Amino acid sequence: MTKLQKNKSNNIHILSFPYIIWMAIFIILPLILIVYYGLTYKTGNITFENIFFIFDPINFKALKLSLWLSFISTMICLLLAYPVALILRNTKMKSNSFIVLILILPMWMNFLLRTIAWQNLLERSGVINTLLKTIHLPSLNIINTPIAIVLGMVYNFLPFMILPIYNILIKIDKDIINAAKDLGANNMQTFIRIIFPLSLPGVISGITMVFVPSLTTFVISSILGGSKILLIGNIIEQQFRIGNWHAGSGLSLVLMIFILMSMAILSKYDSGSGGTKI
Amino acid sequence: MTNNKLIDLINITKSFGDNIVLDDLNLYIRENEFLTLLGPSGCGKTTTLRIIGGFETPNTGKVIFQGKNITNLPPNQRQLNTVFQKYALFSHMTISDNIAFGLNIKKKSKAYIYDKIKYALKLVNLDGYDNRMPESLSGGQQQRIAIARAIVNEPKVLLLDEPLGALDLKLRQDMQYELIRLKNELGITFIYVTHDQEEALTMSDTIVVMNQGYIQQIGTPEDIYNEPQNAFVADFIGDSNIINATMIEDKLVSILGAKFPCVDVGFGKNKPVDVVIRPEDIDLVQPEEGTITGVVTSLIFKGVHYEMEVLANGHEWLVHSTDLSPVGSTVGIYVDPFDIQIMNKPESEDEEAVEIEE
Fold first, then answer.
1. By CB atoms within 10 Å of each CB, which of A150, B143, B182, B272 scores lowest?
2. Is B290 near chain A, with CB under 8 Å?
3. Which residue ranges form the domains of chain B, and what is each CATH number?
4. In what side-by-side order are the strands of the sheet with B60-65?
5. Residue A142 belongs to what domain range?
C-alpha cells in the first residue's frame, strides 16, 4: 500500500469517529451496565440470582406469554405480508411505489399515538363498539385481552415484514421465473422451488424485525392489555420503576439470550445472501 | 436438416401498447435446422423467440408446433427449452440441482437423473462441477450450465436468446464452435437470436434478417452475404458499398455515371436501383484498366487485409485488399460483373432501411 492510499483510508476512518463515540456511550456502556447489574447483588457481590428470577412463576408465565404472542404476531404478519409483496411484485404498475408508500405511511406517525388510537377504537365504549351499537350488533370485547395485544403488534410491525420481502422479491429476475416454467414447472412448483427459497433472506429479516420488537414490547401490552396482562417487557419495566435495577437487568439478560438464540436459528436458514435492509 | 416443418409461425402480430413489434410475421423452422434471427435491437427478434417459447402471446396469428396449434399453451407444457441471455441459473441450488430441475419436475428416477447430469456436464466440458454453486462459476461456465440444464430435458427445439452476448470476444468465438458441435451431437433444432452478424454467419444453416418487426430476408449465410435483397441487409451484414444506381438495361448498370457490366436481368430499363459491392470484391488496377478512376484517401492496416478508401466519381469506395495502394495514388476501380449485386429500391416506408445503432 502506498503512503497516499494509506492516508486516504485513514481519512475515511476518521469520518466514522462521531458514530463510534455515540455507539460507545449509548450502546456499549449501557450493555456493560446491564451485564454488571444483572450479575451482582446491591452489595456488589457476584450472583446469578437476578438471572434465576425468571423462574419466579409470575415472571416465567410472562416470558412464555411474550414468546407465544410474538410468535403468533410474527406468523400473522408473514401470512399477511407475503401475498401482498408477491402481488406487488407481479403487478408491475407505476402505482407500485405509491402502494408501498401507503403501506409504510403509518410508520411515520408516532408509535405511541397509533397504539393509543387502537385503545380508543377497541374500548368498551370506544369507536368500534359505538358503531356496532348503532347498527344493533353485539359489542366487541377484546380490549385488555391477548387478542388486542396481538392486533397492536401486527398493526405496528406489519410494514417491517412487507418491506424486506417486497424488496427481495422485486430483485428476482423475471427470466429466473421464466426459466423454471420453461423447464416444466407450473405456478405452484415455481413458487415452492424457486420464488420462496430465493425470498428467504427477506423473510428472515422480516421475521427478525417483527419478532424482536414484539418480544420486548411493554407499551403495546400496557395500553391494549390494561394492567391485567403482563408481558416480560412489562415486568422488566416494573423492576426498573421500583428501583430494582439488578432484577430488571437480570431479566433483560435472559430476554437478550432468547433474542440472540432466535437470531442464530434464523441466520442458519439465511443462505448468506445478506438479507435485505429497508 | 430435413424438409419437415417443425414450427410454423403464421401471421404473427404483436404490439406492446402503441408499439408494434411484429407485423404479420410468417416463418417456418425445419427439423434439425440451426436458424438464426438476426437484427438490430428492437427489430422483434427476441419477441419472436419469446412467442415460440410461450413467454409472450401474439395479438393475432398462430404458432404451430408439429402440426398442433400451441399459441396459447403455457411454456411449461411446450416441448422446447430456452437458454436465457443472462443465464438465469437458480442461485440457491447447486449445479446438479440446476441441471436436474426439469427432470425432477417430470419425476424421473434418481438413477436416470444422475446419469443425465453426468452426461450433460461431460457434453459441456464441465465434468466434476456437480456440487459447485452457480455464483462460483465464470460467465462462460454459467452459460454452459444453462445449456446443460436445457438439453437434459431432450427438447425438440432449443431456443437461445443472445446466449453469448455477455461473454468476451475470445470466449464468444470458442462458444460458437462449442454450440455447432453440440447441435451436431444432439441433432435437434436450434433457434438462435443475436445482433452479431459474424455469429450468425458462422453458426447458422438459415439466417432470418429482421428489422422493425419485418423479415427482411431469409436465406443461407452465403445467400444473405452475397445476395442481400435490400440495402438494410447489405448494410447490416458485413461492410459494403451501397450506391444509388440506374439499371440501363439487362446486364448493364450505371453507377455514378459509369457503365458497369453485371449479370442481373429483369429490372426493366432506366430503373433506379441500389447496388451493393462488397469491399473485398473491388479490384484496384492501373488507372487505364479500371472502369472508373479514383484517388486513395485513406489506408488502414487491418491484419488480414488493408482497408482503403478511394474517392472516385464523388463517392468514397470502401476497398479491402491484401495489396497496398499508398494514400494519394491514382487507381482504377474494376468490379467483376458477378460481384455486383442489384437490389430494388424499398417500395414502402416500412421496409425502408434504418440507421443501425449498434
1. B272
2. no
3. 5-226 (3.40.50.300), 241-344 (2.40.50.140)
4. B19-30, B5-16, B60-65, B68-69
5. 56-271
Reported pTM: 0.80
Tens-digit pLDDT string for chain A (278 aa): 445 555 566 677 888 899 999 999 999 999 999 999 999 998 888 999 999 999 999 999 999 999 999 999 999 999 999 999 998 888 766 777 888 888 878 888 888 999 999 999 998 888 898 899 899 888 888 889 999 999 999 999 999 999 999 999 999 999 999 999 999 999 999 999 999 999 999 999 999 999 999 999 999 999 999 878 899 999 999 999 999 999 999 999 999 999 999 888 888 776 544 443 33
CATH number of the domain bearing residue A236:
1.10.3720.10
Specify if A277 maps to a domain: no
- Confirm whether A278 is domain-assigned: no
Tell me the chain B residues in contact with residue A200 when contact means C-beta distances shorter than 8 Å. Answer: 92
CA distances from A58 to A33, A215, A230 (A): 25, 17, 9
Q: Which residues in B lie closer than 8 A to residue A188 (C-beta atoms)?
A: none
Identify which of B55, B91, B105 has the shortest CB distance to residue A183. B105
Q: How many domains does chain A have?
A: 1
Per CB-CB distance under 8 Å, the chain A contacts of B91 are 198, 273
Residues with Cβ within 8 Å of A216's Cβ and at least 6 positions away in sequence, in order, are A232, A233, A255, A259
Point out the residue among B75, B86, B92 whose CB comes nearest to the CB of A182: B75
- What is the residue whose three cell numbers read 419485418? B214
Q: Is there a domain that residue A22 lies in?
A: no
Q: Decide: A187 and A195 in contact? Cβ < 8 Å.
A: no
Query: B55 vs A194: CB contact, 8 Å cut-off?
Result: no
- Whether the CB of B82 is below 8 Å from some CB of chain A: the reply is yes
ipTM value for the complex:
0.81
Work out the minimum CA distance from A183 to partner chain B, whole angstroms.
5
Residue A267 lies in a domain: yes
The DSSP element (H or E) to which B105 belongs, if any, is helix B95-105
Report chain A residues touching chain B, CB-CB < 8 A.
Answer: 173, 175-176, 178-186, 189, 193-194, 197-198, 200, 271, 273
Q: How far is A273 from chain B (nearest CA, A)?
A: 10
